[in-house]
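[Meeting: bench + compute handoff]

Bench side (C.D.) handed over the final construct sequence. Compute side (W.E.) agreed to return the predicted structure before the next meeting so the bench team could plan truncations. Sequence as handed over:
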Amino acid sequence: MLGESKPLNLEIKTQMTDDQIPIVALKGEIDLHTCAEMRDTLRDLIEKGHHQIVINLAEVPYLDSAALGVMVDAVRRVREHEGGISLVSTTPFVRRAFEITRLVKIFQLYESNSAALEQIRMRPVPVA
């Protein structure tokens, strides 16, 4: 109907693997109005000591520069602890956003959660 606005919500589900690697599944558009919840989720995980994080973007049709900024901030924070952010199942639009901004150079992109987890588990664990 005319005059109706679509809801501004982003669904975030976090699941822990047996070896305590968080998989954050996002659903919906991520923009200036919805990225605060994603930022808070990622910061909370990082503050709890999770420095390898998988973000599944299979159900994210759109993200803007605010969302990219949140992800860059998160990768900067985990890299301070020798960690990384792995992006999974990016849609064509989202993948293109990472390519255009050359952020593919700082994020690892994978086709599936299992592929990302396999690579994470092969990396040496940093010594504290």
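W.E. noted at the follow-up: The first helix runs from residue 35 to 47. C.D. will use this when planning the next construct.
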